[in-house]
Structures are given as C-alpha cells and as structure tokens.
Design a protein that fits this description.
Layout lengths: L1 E3 L1 H9 L4 H4 L9 E4 H15 L1 H11 L3 E3 L3 H14 L3 H12 L3 E4 L10 E3 L6
C-alpha cells in the first residue's frame, strides 16, 4: 500500500518535473490509500489556482484510491505521532493514516525526513 502526500498529488496533477518521480506510486490505484486531509489540501489548492471544475476533477481522480476518513483511532494516532515527531497537524494525519494501513508514504516534504516507511521522492536513496 502507498500513501501519496498532498505535495506529491499536486506535483503529479500539475505535471511538474518532479511528477515523473511519483509515477510508480500511481501505477495501481487499488494500492493507494488517500487520507481525507489530502483530498481537502489538494482540492483547496486546485480551487484557488484553477477553479471549481479543476478541484472537482482532482477529487474524482484521487477517489479512485481507497479514501480513508479521519476517525477516533486515527485522531489518537495522529496526536501521538504529531507530538513525538513534531509534525504539523495535517502531516500527522497523513503519517498516521499511512502507518495504520502499513503503507509507504511518498513525499518530498522535509517534515517527514528520517521517519520510518517514508520514501523521499527526488532524493537519492542512500
């Protein structure tokens, strides 16, 4: 299973140079876990930058994966992970969702540096 962080979705949607690095993560939509916070973050950016239709299209595409809602168990896990790893609120939810689904988190967000089960895109592996 794979969780793609919001920054990865945005790179892929915008077709940036970095988006090529995310291509393998999107190979099998059935293997993608999508935290609802990612739906919100991505659709909000797309609405602001490209309008309502673009935001709606992103939601449709992202919903091809397994969308996971924030529930009490994820709240508790995100709270602990956020404090333990000094993660911002949204990042703690994304990371907790990945951990709860035994998924690898794909990102280029430095907040996740050195955390287990995180693949940094665009950064050479050691």
């Amino acid at each position: 299973m794979i969780v793609v962080d919001s920054c990865g979705w945005l790179e892929a949607i915008k077709g940036s140079e970095l988006s090529r690095e995310y291509v393998p993560a999107f190979a099998d939509p059935a293997q993608i876990v999508v935290p609802t916070i990612c739906l919100l973050e991505v659709s909000r950016v797309m609405y602001r930058e490209r309008g309502r239709e673009a935001a709606a299209e992103c939601l449709v595409i992202m919903s091809l994966g397994q969308v996971v809602s924030l529930d009490g168990d994820l709240v508790a896990a995100a709270s602990a992970l956020g404090v333990d790893h000094r993660l911002p609120l949204a990042d703690s939810i994304v990371y907790a969702t990945a951990r709860a689904h035994d998924a690898e988190l794909w990102t280029h967000d430095p907040h996740f540096r050195d955390l287990p089960a995180v693949r940094f895109v665009g950064v050479p592996e050691a």
